[in-house]
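Annex B. Sample input.
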Amino acid sequence: MEMNKLKTTKYMNIFTNLGYILGFGIIIWYIITRSNGLLPIIGVIVIFLGRAIGYGIDRVIEYNDEKKKA
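Annex B, continued. Sample output.
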C-alpha cells in the first residue's frame, strides 16, 4: 500500500513526532554525557518504533471503519 493512498495518518504523524522528540533527546543526552555508547542506537530505534506504532494504530482504525461500512 502506498503512503499516498492511506486514508488517515493522524496517529502516524503524532507518534512519529513523539519518536523524533524522544529519539533525538536520547541522542543529545548521549552527546552531553558520553555515558553509554548504545544510546544513539536506542534513539534511532525509538524513532522507528514511534512511526511503526502510529502506522499500526491508523491501519487498525481504518480496518475497523471499513468493517463497519461493509
